[in-house]
């Protein structure tokens, strides 16, 4: 799974150019989905262009809200609306949303549950800050974030295959400093083992996919994707350039 996360960037024009260039040059393999996450306001436009191009690019949403019982939410986007648009994937728990939008574990849990109920595939983002890394507390930090998935093996047992974990160390996002291969391998291994051993997925024989994000570019993508236990890439800045993105996909 290779994901382009455009964050709050782009225009109708750049969305159209990107879809045209990527559609014409990418060699999409079914086992490795190629997912475009434009800003929400361009989701429907992107859907239309991808369909017109008969492209196999999938679309993901950068946001989703959960419903509030007896309350309304101005500006909210529900998983039902995303499904209605033909969106298959949604990012949940991105560090920028945890940080700037103050998303709590409770909110993240509800978003994941509702998205799964509406048949969306969830890319659940986790990752430690630099202080945590320096204190050698990464595993403890990540295990607390992973515990959000703990309930799901009883409430959403049949939907666990629709969850992918994106490991994105916060200090690597947008910094130009990707994590080193050994660190990525060790952390991905920890994440998979924690989900299997502590969240009880192993007896269901469901092996979580874990993808890496954080300053991936054309120069480092081959090394990162070849790392043990790395099942894909989540790419921010470098994905804005259509040529860079399709080359990364084709190399992965
Ligand atoms: C991201 O937005 O999730 C991300 C990984 O960004 P970048 O590739 O720019 O570090």
Walk me through what this model shows.
This protein has an eight-stranded parallel beta barrel, surrounded by four helices. It is globular and about 45 Å long. It starts with a strand and ends with a helix. The longest helix is centred in the C-terminal third of the chain and has 18 residues. With 252 residues, it is α/β, with parallel strands linked by helices. The model has no long low-confidence stretch (mean pLDDT 95). The chain is built from eleven helices and eight strands. 40% of the residues lie in helices and 14% in strands. The chain has a single domain, classed as Aldolase class I (TIM Barrel, Alpha-Beta Barrel). Bound molecules: phosphoenolpyruvate.
Write the layout of secondary structure elements.
Layout: E1 2-5, H1 12-25, E2 34-37, H2 43-52, E3 58-61, H3 79-84, E4 89-92, H4 95-100, H5 105-117, E5 121-126, H6 130-134, H7 138-146, H8 152-155, E6 163-167, H9 181-198, E7 209-213, H10 221-225, E8 233-235, H11 242-251
Parallel strand pairs: 1-2, 1-8, 2-3, 3-4, 4-5, 5-6, 6-7, 7-8
- How much is the radius of gyration in Å? 17 Å
SSE pattern: EHEHEHEHHEHHHEHEHEH
User: Which CATH class applies here?
Assistant: Alpha Beta
Q: How many beta strands in the DSSP annotation?
A: 8
Q: Which ligands appear in the coordinates?
A: phosphoenolpyruvate
Major beta sheet summary: 8 strands, parallel, barrel
CATH architecture, by name, is: Alpha-Beta Barrel
